[in-house]
Amino acid sequence: MLASQSPRRRELLALLGLPFRVQPAAVDETPLPGEAPAAYVARTAAAKARAIDGPAVLAADTAVVLEDTILGKPRDRDDGQAMLRRLSGREHSVLTAVVLCRGGQTWAVTVRTAVTFDRLDDARIHAYLATEEPWDKAGGYGIQGRAGAFVRSLTGSYSNVVGLPLVETRELLLTAGLLAGPDAGTAS
């Protein structure tokens, strides 16, 4: 069971060849006062995994982090513009925590990817905000879409930035006995 409403996570998990159902988890995703970004994604992913009843539940939470500040989904055009201006020409981190619960056991991992944006002028920002892409995405951008042209460099997992680090997710599924074989794109 995938405890997520993200179509991107659904698409990425499908690449591993494991059959699954989707059941979004309704949890409060508000960061706690003073909570570090890595602790936030770990806590939120774990809460999502625990919120769903099933024999095996996979959950994830992703945050875009600039200078230890979590940039959530933009509330409106002004918020989206402010986020993209802050990210312009700078490096930021994308953190994703993945939690898998099966048979009373829990496995978890948090993955960090460093992303550096090109300098974005107002025209590029306004053109991007005129699309549908930024509104449901942490940090106000989706690397797998038009905002891929904003990325000057990336160090780490590309799929992590999209929303589910595939290498680490595959390793959790193997450890939990949900995938078989060394190249496991085949479900057990």
UniProtKB/TrEMBL annotation:
<feature type="active site" description="Proton acceptor">
    <location>
        <position position="61"/>
    </location>
</feature>
<protein>
    <recommendedName>
        <fullName>dTTP/UTP pyrophosphatase</fullName>
        <ecNumber>3.6.1.9</ecNumber>
    </recommendedName>
</protein>
<feature type="site" description="Important for substrate specificity">
    <location>
        <position position="62"/>
    </location>
</feature>
<keyword id="KW-0378">Hydrolase</keyword>
<comment type="similarity">
    <text>Belongs to the Maf family. YhdE subfamily.</text>
</comment>
<dbReference type="GO" id="GO:0036221">
    <property type="term" value="F:UTP diphosphatase activity"/>
</dbReference>
<dbReference type="Pfam" id="PF02545">
    <property type="entry name" value="Maf"/>
</dbReference>
<dbReference type="GO" id="GO:0036218">
    <property type="term" value="F:dTTP diphosphatase activity"/>
</dbReference>
<feature type="site" description="Important for substrate specificity">
    <location>
        <position position="8"/>
    </location>
</feature>
<keyword id="KW-0546">Nucleotide metabolism</keyword>
<comment type="function">
    <text>Nucleoside triphosphate pyrophosphatase that hydrolyzes dTTP and UTP. May have a dual role in cell division arrest and in preventing the incorporation of modified nucleotides into cellular nucleic acids.</text>
</comment>
<feature type="site" description="Important for substrate specificity">
    <location>
        <position position="144"/>
    </location>
</feature>
<dbReference type="GO" id="GO:0005737">
    <property type="term" value="C:cytoplasm"/>
</dbReference>
<dbReference type="InterPro" id="IPR003697">
    <property type="entry name" value="Maf-like"/>
</dbReference>
<keyword id="KW-0963">Cytoplasm</keyword>
<dbReference type="InterPro" id="IPR029001">
    <property type="entry name" value="ITPase-like_fam"/>
</dbReference>
<dbReference type="GO" id="GO:0009117">
    <property type="term" value="P:nucleotide metabolic process"/>
</dbReference>
